[in-house]
Structures are given as C-alpha cells and as structure tokens.
Specification:
Strand content: 15-25%
Mean pLDDT: 93
Largest sheet: 8 strands, parallel
Distance between the termini: 61 Å
Shape: globular
C-alpha cells in the first residue's frame, strides 16, 4: 500500500522519481516527500496526518485557463463574475467575452479561475548578433557602472551589434560585500545600486568588492545628502507604492540588524509585524535614501538602454533573470507567500557534481503562484522587460520542473505549472515587444524544448555542448543548429575559448577536488581536435565564422573571446571557479568597440546576415 505521504506529495506536484543523466532511476523517498511538503506549507510528518489531509483534500486553488488574447475562453458556464486585469468588473451568464491581453480572474459555479489571455506565439526576431559582457568588469577602476554600460552599448551599436547582454542586475547585499554573485540576488524586482557610479575604485585585474562597495555607498550617500527635492522622484516613489516601501524598510533594517532577515529579531520576521510597522516611522529617512537609490538605478539603466538604441541596436539591452532568490533576502521578506522555505533550488547528481548541487536559492512555490494568479512571476518579468529588448530566463527548465533540495534529505523534482508560466512570459514579452531566451541546458524534461519553440521562446545552443556523440567527440556542424535559438561558444560560468582549448577548467576542478588531470586533458585534446575539424582555422575568427553560419536567429559574441584575440596577459583561461565575478576586463568600456577584433567580428557577422 502506498504511503499516504507519497500520495499527498504526488498530488502537490512532487514527482515520484526521475532518470538522471546516466539513465539511473532515482526514486523520491518518504523523507524527501515530507520535507518538500513542509516547504510548500503542508506539515504532515506522520501517515495519519497525511491521510487526514488527503481525506480533506480538495483543489481550492484557481483553475488555469489559457486562451488567445482577444478570444473567448472555452468554458461552459452559468452565472459568472469576471474581474479584468485592469480592475474592471463584469457579470453575465453563459459565454464569456473576448479577453484583452493579460491575466484576469473569474468566479463561476463556486470555483475560481485564472484566465491567461496570451498571444499563442511570440514573433521571431530578425537574425542578428550581439555582445555579451560582464557589467561589473567593464570599468578601468572599480565596479562597472550603468554609465559604463551606456558607453559600451552605444559603441557596440555603432559597430552593428543588435544587443548587449550582461549579468543579472538584481538588488544585492550592499552590507554583505562578500556576497557579490549576481546569481544570488536579494530581490529580483529591484536593481543593484552598486552599479551606480561613485567613489574611488581599485585598479588592477580584479575587483575588490570589500573595499569598493563601501566606498561607492559612501559616495552615493553624499550625493543623496546634496540632493534637492525633485517632483519626478516624488511622483515615481508614489507610483511604486507599498512594494517599494517594504523593500526600502528591508534595506534600512539590514543596515542595523545584518543582511539576512533570518538573523533578525523574531519581531521583525515579516513586514506586517507590529515592530516592523513601527520601525517605518523611525527609519523614514533611511527608507527615503534607499528609495532614491532605486530611482537613480532605474534612471541609469534606462539611459543605458536608450544609448544602445541611439547607437543603432535593434534590441538594446539583453538582461538576465536569475533562477531564484536568496532565501533570506528582501524578496522573500516582502513576499513570503510566493516561495518555498526549507528547500533550495539545485540540480541532481551528474558527472560534474556526483553529490548533486544545492544553489542556496529559494524556489517559487507552485501553490503560492497559483493562489496569486501568477502575479509575482508577471511582476518579476515586467520589471526586467521595462529596460530590456531581450530577456534571458536562467534555467528555464524550472518552468517545467524544479529540483528542490531539502535541508536534511535527498532532493527531488517538483512539477511546475509550465503552460501557465509560459503564457505569463508571452503576455509580458508581448507588452514590451521583447524577445525571450530560455536557458535550456542540462537534464532537459521531455517536451520542454517543443513547448518553448511553440511559444516563440528561443533556446540556448552552446557550441561546446552541441554534439552528436561524446565518446569519441563528434560536434554538430553549424548548419545543424536550431533556428529558434541563440548560438554561442560558452556561457558566463564555463571556460573561455582559450581556456577550453587549454583545459583550464579541468585544472581548476582538479584544484577543488584533488582529481588527476591526465585523462581529462587527453579527452579535451580529442574534443579540441574534433571541433577544429569544423573550422577553417582554429582561431577566434574561425569560431565566429562558424557561429555566424548557424541558422540560429541570435548569435552571441562574448567579450572574453574578443580579448582572447588581443593576447591580454591578465585574462584567465577559465571561469570554472567563478573568478569572472571578480574580474575586470583589461580594456575600458569606451575603448572596447575600437579593438581590431571587434571590427573583424562585425565584418564576419555582416558577411553572414540573411
């Protein structure tokens, strides 16, 4: 007889198991099921409690209904009450009216519905190329700023690039300088203020966050103290409403109690608690400072996007949405209902990480998303798309299923409402006139890539992974790449072209694990030889010619590859230990477009436009 805890977990979306990359079936244990149910807010440690929950179970969450924008939902109804996304209400009996683009709420027959009126498919972009560069590293001194981004964007637009991609710029942890990874944000609906210019920087090949972040914050504080009242700021602050006030309160409390709300006094564990509400009066001045920082950041990022378009970029900025958020950052403090607690996003065991991966990121709770008619996801996407012509969704596999790792049990997959989440992405992209790219790499669920293609969401085709065989290595020719994709050689957390060829990532991993490198380096030499057989020459020009020949709609050229061509002595060959999050590119933002390698690459891309 099946344990009722497993039965309940299955009803809540916990999958019974999965096949790993080696084909081995990994079954979800009772221990894991109980832990993941608790993370969703369902504490059922015993079989009796689980059985009681099953006996009482009824799906009280709204039912998702997806239809084309402008069309009538296919529902047979009696009396109904409809609340449009705009807040307008309507009542009727029988067929519903055609629905405008957006997310609407319906009550009929004693049940709630979420109506997602979305374009069936996003239009495909014209074929083009662009540059990918780390924002933090595009300054000669200090942390790269939005002003540096504007300079680089305009210059690369004038060279023919259609977009400029950067790392995530979500709000970080200014009071915790060692937590500088852009992929571990505090809040994905707010911006990182360390990219505002100010204060002296640290020269040299690497950034010194411990020094530069405090110096930058001191300079920004001085600028704020000299700031005169601005009607534009007042109007913006009023328009941002309660969400901004909660974020600003979190930032002000962080300066007093530490970066992570899990370490705060229990009386401040939620913005709705009396002590937190009372703190608003005491910290009103600090809250205004943090609101001003967000206003400045939005202005600066918008200016960078305008500079990109002024330079001729068809899409402007290509932003990156991190897969999750820190479990004790501003986002989870403000919006507890949207996240699972007691489990982290991660990845199952594979050859690279035999024990699996724990990313220490809070996952969206599918029950919370459904209960809120996907508003948290919609707002998260909308916040990025107000600045971006292209948005990359990191690890879009999580739209199908997310791998949750509980604190004291093996991980398992949790099914997500894929079709509804993709509809939300199409709605927000259609509003912004933007392109969506989904990072679809790893243990890909069956049917996901087809669903992305049907939605008009581009996938990622990374040359070092595009193979017809691994032993011996057989790489796919350029002509075999998918059309609905962005093609590149590498990504932000993989080795550069030079580093891959030298096996620098193998050496970096060996330093961490203590493994021998001889076999890995021999295998890499075979891989390099196999890939070189597809190129007219083994240089970066040959590589970019290969990428340009692919039918992929977007081609991404990485800044590090262009610098590989100039023999920069300070550029390492690998980012296997994530040193790119501390690296400064050895060329100024304004000087980068003038590099001979940029002109050659632009010429190569022009020769293959079609």
């Amino acid at each position: 007889m099946t344990d009722p805890r497993l039965t309940l977990a299955g009803r809540m979306g916990v999958l019974p198991g999965f096949h790993d990359l080696a084909g081995q079936w990994r079954e979800t244990s009772v221990e894991t099921a109980v832990a993941l149910l608790a993370a969703m807010g369902l504490a059922v440690p015993t079989t009796a409690e689980a059985q009681a929950a099953l006996d009482d179970h009824a799906d009280r969450l709204p039912q998702d209904v997806i239809c084309a924008a402008g069309a009538r939902p296919d529902l047979a109804l009696g009396d109904w009450q409809l609340t449009f996304e705009s807040g307008t209400e309507a009542e009727g009996n029988g067929p519903l009216p055609g629905l405008p683009l957006g997310i609407h709420c319906l009550r009929a027959g004693g049940r709630d519905y979420t109506l997602l009126a979305a374009p069936p498919r996003l239009p495909e972009p014209a074929r083009c190329w662009g540059l990918i560069a780390p924002l933090y590293g595009i300054s000669e001194t200090g942390i790269g700023s939005y002003a540096d981004l504007a300079v680089l964007a305009r210059g690369m637009g004038e060279k023919g690039a259609a977009f400029l991609g950067i790392n995530p710029v979500h709000a970080g942890f200014p009071t915790e300088q060692q937590l500088f990874s852009p992929y571990t944000p505090s809040h994905r609906r707010r911006l990182n203020v360390i990219h505002l210019p100010g204060g002296p920087g640290t020269p040299g090949p690497r950034l010194d966050y411990a020094r530069d972040i405090p110096a930058r914050m001191v300079a920004l504080r001085a600028e704020y103290e000299a700031f005169a009242d601005d009607p534009g700021f007042d109007a913006w602050q009023a328009g941002e409403g309660e969400g901004l006030q909660r974020f600003a309160l979190h930032q002000a409390l962080s300066a007093r109690h530490g970066a992570f709300w899990g370490d705060w006094p229990a009386t401040l564990a939620s913005p709705d608690m009396p002590a937190a509400i009372a703190a608003r009066a005491e910290l009103a001045g600090e809250m205004r400072f943090h609101a001003w920082l967000q206003w400045r950041a939005e202005q600066a990022l918008a200016a960078a996007g305008q500079a990109a378009r002024d330079g001729g970029m068809a899409h402007g900025l290509y932003l990156d949405l991190a897969v999750g958020t820190h479990p004790f950052g501003a986002e989870t403090w403000e919006d507890r209902a949207s996240f699972a607690f007691g489990a982290s996003l991660g990845a199952p065991p594979d050859a690279f990480a035999p024990q699996g991966q724990n990313w220490s990121l809070a996952p969206f709770n599918p029950l919370g998303l459904r209960a809120q008619a996907y508003a948290p996801l919609a707002e998260t996407l909308r916040r990025q798309l107000q600045f971006a012509g292209v948005l990359r969704i990191d690890h879009i596999l999580g739209f199908e299923r997310a791998y949750w790792v509980p604190e004291a049990a093996p991980g398992a997959y949790v099914a997500m409402p894929r079709d509804a989440m993709l509809a939300v992405a199409r709605i927000e992209a259609a509003r912004a006139g933007a392109v969506i790219v989904g990072e679809d790499l790893g243990n890909i669920p069956e049917g996901l890539r087809e669903a992305l293609a049907a939605s008009g969401i581009l996938g990622c085709r990374v040359a070092m992974f595009e193979r017809d065989g691994w032993h011996p290595p057989t790489f796919r020719p350029a002509e075999a790449y998918d059309r609905d994709a962005i093609a590149s050689f590498s990504t932000h957390d993989l080795p550069t072209w030079r580093g891959w060829r030298q096996g620098a990532d193998i050496e970096a991993r060996a330093r961490i694990t203590g493994q021998e490198t001889a076999a890995g380096q021999q295998e890499r030499a075979e891989e390099v030889a196999a890939f070189d057989r597809l190129l007219p020459d083994p240089g970066v020009d040959g590589l970019h010619g290969f990428l340009a020949r692919t039918p992929s709609l977007l081609v991404a050229v990485q800044a590090e590859l262009l610098l590989d061509m100039t023999d920069q002595p300070n550029l390492p060959g690998t980012v296997g230990e994530y040193p790119n999050w501390q690296l400064r590119l050895p060329v100024a933002a304004g000087d980068f477009p003038a590099l001979p390698s940029v002109a050659r690459t632009a010429s190569i891309m022009r020769d293959h436009e079609r």
